[in-house]
């Protein structure tokens, strides 16, 4: 016997249709749905370039999701805010990166700080290269690569030396990219 579709199922279907058609306005509205906000936030993260057109409304909705109970929702919101380069939420991302009880949510917030491109977060991100958890250290390497300051090369090199061989790749990639930027900007 087929199960009847519930109101919740219908709302979720609308979100998936909005995701498939890149209907950003519908996804932003779906952030209001307490039951499916995490799906809407993840969908907005997937369509970050299109979300930029609806930037202010998206940021307001994603800011609310940063406080959600669901860690997937918080992580997706942090990621989407980073992709939106939402410098106005840097303080909130720093709070999550420092205090969220779920380590991978903290890692998403650290990476989002890099994507946001706010140079003021640089000292904190460098300090996270010393974190006890690899996910945070890896996110810090990714964030420093995104921030793009070649002065991050020495701290990245020191951090990479402490990592196990199979965890060094994100550090290597960040170092290579930052050294390439330094070489390009140093040319007359």
Tell me what you see in this structure.
The radius of gyration is 18 Å and the shape is elongated. The protein is built from 12 helices and no strands. The model has no long low-confidence stretch (mean pLDDT 89). By secondary structure, it is mainly α. It has helices at residues 7-21, 24-30, 37-46, 48-51, 55-65, 71-83, 90-99, 103-116, 122-127, 134-147, 153-162, 169-186. Helix 8 (103-116) runs parallel beside helix 10 (134-147). The protein folds into 2 domains: 13-84, no CATH class; 97-188, Leucine-rich Repeat Variant (Alpha Horseshoe).
* CATH topology term of the largest domain: Leucine-rich Repeat Variant
Helix proportion of residues, in percent? Answer: over 70%
Binned strand content: under 5%
> What is the number of strand segments?
0
User: What would you report as the Rg, rounded to the nearest angstrom?
Assistant: 18 Å
**CATH H level, superfamily name of the largest domain:** Leucine-rich Repeat Variant
Tally the helices. 12
Outline the biggest β-sheet: none
Reading off the top of the CATH hierarchy, the class of the largest domain is best stated as Mainly Alpha
Distance between the termini: 74 Å
Total of domains: 2
> Could you state the oligomeric state of the chains shown?
single chain
